[in-house]
Amino acid sequence: MSAELTRMTAAELAEKIHGREVSAVEVARAHLDRIAAVDGGIHAFLHVAEDAALANAELVDAGLAAGTAPASPLAGVPLALKDVFTTVDMPTTAGSRILEGWRPPYDATVTTRLRAAGVTILGKTNMDEFAMGSSTEHSAYGVTRNPWDVERVPGGSGGGSAAALAAFEAPLAIGTDTGGSIRQPAAFTGTVGVKPTYGGVSRYGLIACASSLDQGGPCARTVLDAALLHEVIGGHDPLDSTSIDAPVPAVVEAARAGATGDLAGVRVGVVRELGGEGYQPGVRAAFDAAVRRLEKLGAEVVEVSCPHFEYGLAAYYLILPSEVSSNLARFDAMRYGLRVGKGASAEEVMAATREAGFGPEVKRRIILGTYALSSGYYDAYYGQAQKVRTLIARDFAAAFRQADVLISPATPTTAFPIGDKVDDPLAMYLNDLATIPTNLAGTAGMSVPAGLADGLPVGLQVMAPALGEAVMYRVAAAFEAARDADDAGALIHRIPSLEAAS
Known about the structure:
alpha/beta, Amidase signature (AS) enzymes, eleven-stranded mixed β-sheet, 40% helix
C-alpha cells in the first residue's frame, strides 16, 4: 500500500484522505519512507521535517474525524518546498554556505498559505545557490541527480523540487522561476512546472535573486495537481508590493475542462524564433508531434514571430546580475548567517565571509552586475537591456493578438550529463533560451511533458498573457489527456527503477 500511495496524484490522495479511505498520516509516512529509501541516490532534499510532517498529518486526520471540513482541497497531501522560501521551523539556506543552518524568524507567505491549507510540508529541497543555475550543480550542499538517469542533471535552479516529484518522493512541490527555474527542471524530469504571471504568487519571504524576475509557482506530476496547488498559493498579498490585487484565475476549472480534450476555437501560436538551430533533433521531433496532437484536438495552429526574442538571453544576463549585485549586498556577516574573521575590522569580516560563503556562480554574477551598474556603463548595458525587455513585451502583446496561447519546446535539449556544462557558463545559460522571454515580460508559462527523445523527457512550453493562466491550463490539460491516451499511460510512470540509486 505504501508504494501505491506514492504513485497516486495529489488529487487522488486528497480524495482518499478526505473520504477517510486512508489517513493523512499513512500518506505522509509512505512518502517519508520513500525519501529514506531513494533520496540517498537522488539528493532532492536538504532537510526532511519528519516530525512536523507527521504532526500536520495528525491534525488533518483529527479534523476529519471530528467532522470538520478539510482546510483546502489539498489538506493532508504531502509537498516538497524549495529551500528559498523562509520557514520558521526548518533551516532556510537558499543552497548557500552563507546561510548554512539559518532559521528565519518568519514564514514566507507561500509557506503560510500552505500551512493554512493543511498541506503536509515534507521538507526543503536542493537548489542552485540563490537560484543561480540551470542544473542544481551550483548548490553548496551537493548535486541533485535526475531520477530518469542518475548520471544526468535534473535541471535548475529548482532541480530538487522536480527530482522529488519524478522520484515519487512527493506528489507536489514548490519552485521559483527567474528565467526558467521551474519550467526547465520540469522538462528535464517529465513533470509539470508552472511560472505564474509576475505578481500572481507572493514573493514575501522568497529570498531574492532578481526581484523583477523571480516568481514562485507550483510543480506537480499532472496539470490538475498543479492547478490545485496554484489556487492554494496564489492571490494578492499586501506584504508584497508587487503582488497583483486580482482574483486567482480559474485554473482548476480550466484544467478539468481541458481534460475533456476539446480545444475547438482555441488559437495556438508556434513561436518561429524558439526552435531550429541549437535545438536537439529529438526535442524538435517531439515538439512537432505535440503540434499535430493539438491540431487533432481542434486547436487552430498559426505561426507567430517574436523578432526580439533572440536578444532575450543577452538582456537577461545583464538585468539579472545587476539585481543580484544589489540583492546580495545584504549578506554582509553583520546580522545573520555565516561570519568569518572574528576580531578583524568590519570590512575585513565582510570580505572574508563573502569570499568563503558564496560559490563561484554567485560571485560571477555579482561581478557582472556590479560592472553593468557602474558609472559610465549603466546606460550602455543595464539601460539597453531594459529597452530590449520592453521590445520583448511588445512582441508578446502582438503575438497574443494572433493567438490565445503560444507554444515552443521548453528547453533546447534533454537533460545533459552531470559535469558536462558546469565549467562553461555560456553553454549553461543557453538552457534557458526558450523560457527567459516569459520572465522578462512578466507573463505566464508552463512546461508539460511532451514525450521522450533518446529515452529522456521533453517538455512542451505553453505561454499565456498576464493573468491568462486559465487558457494555458486548459490547453495543457487537453494535451496531457491526449498524450496519455495516445501513448497508453502517463509518461511519469515510465521512469526507470530507482532501486540502484537508493
